[in-house]
Protein: COBW domain containing
Amino acid sequence: MEEEDECPELVPIKEKSTGPTAQIPVTIITGYLGAGKTTLLNYILTEQHNKRIAVILNEFGEGSALEKSLAVSQAGELYEEWLELRNGCLCCSVKDNGLKAIENLMEKKGKFDYILLETTGLADPGAVASMFWVDAELGSDVYLDGIVTVIDAKYGMQHLTEEKPEGLINEAARQIALADLAIINKTDLVNESEMVELRGMVRSINGLGKILETQKSRVDLSQVLDLHSFDTKDGIRLAEKLQLVKTSQPHLDKSMLTITFEVPGSVSEDLLNIFIQNLLWEKTFKNKTGLAMIVIRLKGIFSIQHKQKKVMLQGVHELYELDETSECWADHEPRINRLVFIGKIRYSLSVESWEISCFITFKTCFINNLPFTVFLLQVETLMATF
Ligand SMILES: Nc1nc2c(ncn2[C@@H]2O[C@H](COP(=O)(O)OP(=O)(O)OP(=O)(O)O)[C@@H](O)[C@H]2O)c(=O)[nH]1
Ligand SMILES: [Zn+2]
Structure:
């Protein structure tokens, strides 16, 4: 893990030129796992604003880019650069990939006039933002327009008040501290007193940024794009902000991990729902020390029996939804069901036994048309094997 780089001397970039060599604005969309970043991205991509937008997505964990790509609408002309980082994130493990992705996009320059960069839910937007000052010539093509942080109204307080291992920063707080715009999303899931508490907490972390409140991340785009938050006169402001939230330790919480299951076949929707409810609500899957994984984020793509379309699973803490996507399983396409867990298990050394117990039960969802009693018997037999 790279030590956090010294904050680079921030050199305000020169006045933005206009015309064909016009610099392209970049908006960083950040926010904790499941807060609604992709929902905001989709909303921006599908709203009428006659901007041709390029998207850079940085996903946490191996292979989970697939779910992300299915979640990002294919509206309009979309240039997608993937930064699929193995259990890392753009900001602290492979900064140069971020630059590479932007430079790849710049080669297609002229075809788009705005870049949206969605970070992983665990990323440090400060390190991503400072990328725009580290690489001088990059500054000539793009400029950082603003940092937009999406906050989950239902779990935001839990994320912000979570005890972190010694010296580790709370990434949710850091994402808010650096926001030019904070969007408190999912207001449909909380009452007024919870909103007052969260609003106060956000304001106490970030006294400057604008705060909007939304459902499904639907905001007035003039409040999100073209903010010019870091124009020359404000460039120094980023330095101050970075100093404000600067820490010496890397921020990636080692206890956070991603587990991916891939199983061929088609699954019974009922058995899948039972499996997910046992996982998220009953926490029935334990490791050999009797611990369950704290699943913070759950994503998946499924082939459901008797359905032609791919079904996407989205879960955030205890909430989950199975939605049919517009994409069909192609005739020759192998039906591989993928399930990605992002979460933590104390004493992660014993995550394997948790993984085995969970995987075996997941596999039993694929044994077609089992009477439920037989299914449960199978689960018990399987669970006894380790
Ligand atoms: N109830 C409710 N659900 C929402 C709202 N906005 C988004 N969601 C759901 O929350 C889940 C996560 O939304 P995403 O947009 O994928 O969140 P994200 O921040 O991109 O998540 P990561 O992939 O972990 O980074 C999805 O199931 C969304 O449909 C909202 O305002 N209310
Ligand atoms: Zn990072």
